Amino acid sequence: MGGPGDPPEGTPEGGPAGGEDEYRSVVFDESFVRAARLQEYSAQERMTDHAPAVRRRPPLRRGLTRQVLLLLLLIAVALGTAVYMGVRHPYDSSRVRSVAEPLRMTVVPLVPQDEVPGAADAEYLYAHSPAARFEVGAEGIPLPASRSTAHFSDSQVTEALSIARNYLVRSSLDPDVLTGRQVRPVRALVDSDQLDQFDRSFDHPAADGRHAPTGWLVRIDPSRARLADDRIRAQGTLRVAEHDAATLEIGADAVLAYALRPAGATADAAVSLFTVRRELTFRFTRDDLRVGQVRLAGSHTQAGPLSCAEDATSYLRPLLSGQTARSGGPAGTDPYMADSPAALCGTLAAEAQPKV
């Protein structure tokens, strides 16, 4: 007796052994039937005149339809995200790069009232001057505790302070810069918008309040004097403010004392003290913070002992031990000329000189 799955007459002669149907692996499921391109008409449909036995079905476009729907969904999500971000983060005009204004600078020579005092030893001279309480080098210009402002984070304020301090150190304490051998360490920190002004200041110095090398850095005439001690004394402070929503402002006020000997003099030549006070205003956009550069908005320098009769535009030419100021003064100021330099000159107070 055959099994429930066998034909009533048994397995046909010549069929595969064990009752295996060679077409049993081919399964015509419902999806396969729906996907067929040809479809047989029903008996009722075939009864009509001249009706063909089969009809062609339109091809299914399920795959294409899904792709179109997916594409539309992605477009909708992208548009929704753009609208959402536009509402939460409207266009920030503070990120528009502004052009740096030219640096305005003044250099004021301070004339000694008497003969410049000197000593045989730099340490002795420092100890008997107001610089006795100063630190050596960059230690004298500490970074203040930083706090965020209305539009700049704590980390951005810290970065601005660090860059400003770095500029002050490179432009005031680097022996190669001080003696005129190098300007690149300072130039590398200047915002690209001010590089033309910086380069013109050194290529074509002018006492016009815009193109004096001594407004950018401290530079002592190497034909006049040399450092007697590389351990320069310094005392400085940095303060933070916002110039506007897109610009952070750092103010620096530093006093620097240099021990000098005459150029070419022997090691036993008398040492004199040369003092420079620099008040600098730095401004930083977010782009400046990203690349580590500064925009100098203002530079005010007082230096002495100097003579008003000598030009302090390209180099500072200190009066050394035993010297006195020459007579004469700077050229006058013409109020009818916009670029006429201000005839600035001051007197170096006796209290600012070492007591030797």
Give a brief rundown of this model.
With 356 residues, the chain is of the alpha+beta class. It has 10 helices and 10 strands.
The mean pLDDT is 82
Global structural class = alpha+beta
> Which spans of ≥5 residues are poorly predicted at pLDDT below 50?
89-96
From the structure provided, what is the oligomeric state, counting identical versus distinct chains? single chain
* SS summary, helix count: 10
Shape designation? elongated
How would you sum up the major sheet? 8 strands, mixed
Bin the strand percentage. Answer: 15-25%
Q: What share of the residues lie within helices?
A: 25-40%
How far do the termini sit from each other? 135 Å
- How do the helices and strands follow one another from N- to C-terminus? HEHEHEHEHHHHHEEEEHEE
Quantity of strands, as a count: 10
What do these coordinates show?
The chain has 356 residues and is α+β, with helices and mostly antiparallel strands. The chain is built from 10 helices and 10 strands. Strands 3, 4, 5, 6, 7, 8, 9 and 10 form an 8-stranded mixed sheet that branches. The protein has a two-stranded antiparallel sheet with strand order 1-2. A hairpin with a 2-residue loop joins strand 6 (233-244) and strand 7. Mean pLDDT is 82; it is low at 89-96.
Notable traits:
alpha+beta; 356 residues; 10 strands; 8-stranded mixed sheet; two-stranded antiparallel ribbon
